[in-house]
């Protein structure tokens, strides 16, 4: 019997926790495999039922006669193909679209293999069953991965299954990477310390991360901290040979190594890694702000805004009547905002404040100690009773659909700034003006008024530099959840 006392008891608990965490992460691919097997089984049952009952297909033949051959083949080929393209690799779980892409591509490969195989073998495969199996199976598998990811993110937020991370590098770069990892909670990274170059004597970095030792003590620091992953940041080692030897030492502890370059806020679609002579070169595509101004996005905005105006016309009428009935003041609030390339325009909103709201602004600035940026108050006394309802569900912003139709705004883009804000912009902030401002954007789905001024600016610049139509569609879909939850709306 082993008795553990004092400080050794804490170390013992940490070791047990690390072991449980490691086993749980090891079982993650197995969990995904079991979910896929179950969903493929459900797909086969639904495809058979649909083939035998839907009027679209010939009911002369019973597909269950051939299911004994096609069923096992479908299971094996589908699962093996997902595994072959890396769908069960631990690195794809948790964040990013790579997991979904691999499952989707593997499903198309499976369809091709089954279809071509049955044709070459002259096997009488029911076309109805085949179409239903692929048409049902792909969405089910993607939904299964989505559900598994949501559970994983909930575990991360609860402090479970997190990777313990040590960052090796210059203190300033350590803080930059730690800030990103702290912000992106879906990655499940918990920074437990830093390792700095020899000669750095401070016990913590500027942001308060504990320095566990210098680069020469990296392996020992990893062992003491029970770390799973080490990030190699800029300045961690003097030469590439030192870095290679450090990676060799970490192999003995089965610690994962991640190299973090001095590049942040760049979407993966703009990054291409090409090894040349053993040297991995990272190629960055140019910023995509010009693509966000092309005719395709404008056509999408025009059609989308026009459709939404028609759909929301009863809600627009109801909101206008409530605003007018409250104090007989104007229905719309027109505020000068700055658009693309610095052009100013009148931004439309339903009026949510008292008529003399602008006259009271200076007093509120003094009361709140406002010193620049975007002014927001959680309990602004100027907001009217109908205004609180309009703001809670962002109904006050629906008149901006007419700004979109007029070409002054986009459905998705950076937040439209005030001219007074633009006057304080530096060169980096002015990048926000390269595209049309949007009714919604990354700032809207990431917290709205709960965001700091610096974080809102960062998200807007990220959007401008990494624009894509897929990202626009994703933001629009996630905006609905942000509006319904009313997170950050005041």
TrEMBL record:
The keyword Cytoplasm does not apply. Its EC number is 2.7.8.-. Its main location: membrane. It comes from the Bacteria. The chain crosses the membrane at residues 25-49, 69-91, 103-122, 128-148, 300-321. Keywords: Membrane, Transferase, Transmembrane, Transmembrane helix. This is Sugar transferase. It comes from Nocardioides imazamoxiresistens.
